């Protein structure tokens, strides 16, 4: 008997789980709050790592499709100071283990790999409750319900499934991003495009940073990093794009124009992205019939691993269920035993990075860390 799986959330983790289950002949239904696959922008680029995210893609049987999404040359990376001086640079020679893809295209690849009807769009979850014997009832905002013997919360930071397992709630990390875009950058914003280069660029100074990625075409996606309180951001009216842009740009007074242009000349209104995290050692006692994947299980401050871990969670849970088709609890226990320490290790690695990124020695501490990392990589 293969228990049908109910997955809440059609992000990368939930869709990877659904795909791996499909590969193994296990039925699954994904409920997603968004109205359609194109209801909102799916964000920027992701580097999918050979030690976690790509393992999930392989388990999903989609490596050929994945390779077709890779943006060549985007693994190039450079670190600048506020004067625009390049302090560190690594070219993309095609051998790196972190190829870049557009998040939206990666999600669409997973959606295209599932049978029609697997994802039920427009199903926003309002709550979930235990019915006993490992069964759970999920209630949707429109009043509808579904009862399931195997429930997986893949519904992100503010998971409606998590309370079945844990009382933990995300807390503000002290860091927010402000996102902007420049379009047709090579012709309309050539100085900024030159500063960013062919891949990703990081420009740091004490207490602030600008990161930018070259996405498909000559689009530049900028992330302004500011370790500020929520009250500080609340004082900015982000509904007034011009005023908000001016206020954020003011934090970079004295920086060279090719860097401040990434903010001041943006082609889109600035979007605030506050970052939250669950406790590093977040875990729960085994509860029959329910588990979590991705940010619902182990939300961390931005560290480049979130999407990769979510996909690996989905793949590993799918494989465990396929290995134990007649014993769901054994599968869930096996998955959680491996997932808890894996996610905690990644979260712990990010502790202390604030000093490298925003401390008095920024950006030189960051350059030293990258140089050491590259050296180890070459030594292996």
UniProtKB/TrEMBL annotation:
Names of the cofactor(s): FAD
Gene Ontology BP terms: response to antibiotic
Gene3D superfamilies given in the database record: FAD/NAD(P)-binding domain
Domain FAD-binding: 2-344
Binding, NADPH: 40
GO molecular function, one term: FAD binding
Family the entry assigns: Belongs to the aromatic-ring hydroxylase family. TetX subfamily.
Descriptive protein name: Flavin-dependent monooxygenase
Organism of provenance: Streptomyces violaceusniger
